[in-house]
Amino acid sequence: MDQSTVSLIVFLVLIIVMFYFLIIRPQQRRQQEHDKLLSSLGPGDKVITIGGIFGEIDSLSEDSVVLRTEDGGLLRVARNGIAAKRE
């Protein structure tokens, strides 16, 4: 192998390592935090959906959540549609 081939391989390896640490690893960490949030949900928790709807959890099932909105209405949303808990 000549010098240009070795430098090309080193450059490609560095690009792959940077891609992993800048894109893949942070996304995995965010996914783990979101999974932990979803597993900790319970009735009475105040949440915000991905669509921006504020509500309080009325009931939970394996794949959906029933939210009570401020006007008293009930909405069924996908469990993965919960973005965050409100304090």
- Tally of helical runs: 1
Low-confidence stretches: none
Q: Give the class from helix and strand content and strand pairing.
A: alpha+beta
* Helix content estimate: 40-55%
Q: Could you give the distance between the termini? A: 60 Å
CATH architecture of the largest domain: Roll
- Rg calculated over all Cα atoms: 21 Å
The CATH topology name of the largest domain reads SH3 type barrels
Strand content: 25-35%
Our count of domains comes out at 2
How do the strands of the widest beta sheet line up side by side?
Answer: 4-3-2-1-5
- What is the 3D form? rod-shaped
Q: Strand count, sense and closure of the main sheet?
A: 5 strands, antiparallel
How would you portray this structure in words?
The longest helix has 37 residues, at 3-39. 43% of the residues lie in helices and 29% in strands. The chain is an alpha+beta fold. It has a five-stranded antiparallel sheet with strand order 4-3-2-1-5, with helices on one face. It folds into two domains: 1-40; 42-87, SH3 type barrels (Roll).
Characteristics:
87 residues, alpha+beta, SH3 type barrels, 2 domains, 5-stranded antiparallel sheet, 1 helix, 43% helix, rod-shaped
